[in-house]
Amino acid sequence: MCWRSPTIPTPCHQPRPHAGNHTHALLPATPTRRQPYPRPATSHAHTQSLILACATMVLGSVHPPPYGQQPAYSHTVYKNSYCDPTAIPACAANSTLTYCLKDAEYPEYDIKGAISADFLFVKKYADVASQSADDLVDMVTKTQEEAFSYSYYTGASTGKSPYDVTHWAGPEGYICPSDVAYAMPKRAQNVEGKWRVIVNNVHYYTQTARLETCLFPEAACRALAPCYKSHCTQKYVYHRLLSFDPCDAYKGLFIDIYKLPSACSCHIPA
């Protein structure tokens, strides 16, 4: 609706151009917004199908080996070597003893590592390093025991008579000739027949044992007449020693039991 006034022209009474006038009153054109091109409608399932199709093409170019043919791998093959704990070690190869006082193959490096890794080592370890006859043999001193010699002993009479002096007489010493050593064994056979490494002379740790071995086992006792039919017999004692298993280093250090020679005594049968 237009509001009309007799004097003031209103927007409804715009002057019209005369016929001879070629000038037209043009209104500015209203700019129009460009509409974007419509994007193709894609779904998530369609995208997944495209990815799967590409993966199938890539994997399809790799052919599996034919049946029965093994693929070639570049790797090192390790052979498991069995360690027999009952096997006689090199240190006891030429001996009848069940222990070694010297061992060229002693695993000192492994023992040191086991000591460092064992938090209870101090509680397991104990030793009296300085031992001698002064402490362990009554009425015999260290000097006396070290001077005992049985080079004259034959174990039987060498003369015409069974009472020959070469059999039963001699200088000071034990009635049964024996070898005494206050030793630190490096390796020994336990009561189960398995060889173990003994912790000895590693850092400042030692384990000392008095070992007395008969020089002439089952021979006659010296200073006794043959009529007694005596003979020397070997005695043993069980020792508990801190040990290491060379066949299983993961065991660490543990206490094991060993049967070691302790004395050579004279036995007179009934």
Folded structure, characterized:
With 270 residues, the chain is α+β, with helices and mostly antiparallel strands. It is 17% helix and 19% strand. The chain contains 6 helices and 7 strands, in the order αβαααααββββββ. It has helices at residues 44-60, 108-117, 121-124, 133-136, 142-147, 165-168; strands at residues 99-100, 178-183, 187-189, 195-198, 209-214, 231-244, 253-267. The strands form 2 sheets. A 5-stranded antiparallel β-sheet has the order 1-3-4-6-7, covered by helices on one side. β6 (231-244) and β7 form a beta hairpin. The longest helix has 17 residues, at 44-60. The protein is elongated and about 120 Å long. It starts with 43 loop residues before the first helix and ends with a strand. The model is unreliable at 1-5, 19-27 and 73-79 (pLDDT under 50).
Distance from first to last alpha carbon: 156 Å
Beta-strand residue percentage: 15-25%
If you compute it from the alpha carbons, what radius of gyration comes out, rounded to the nearest whole angstrom?
A: 52 Å
Shape designation = elongated
Q: How many β-strand runs?
A: 7
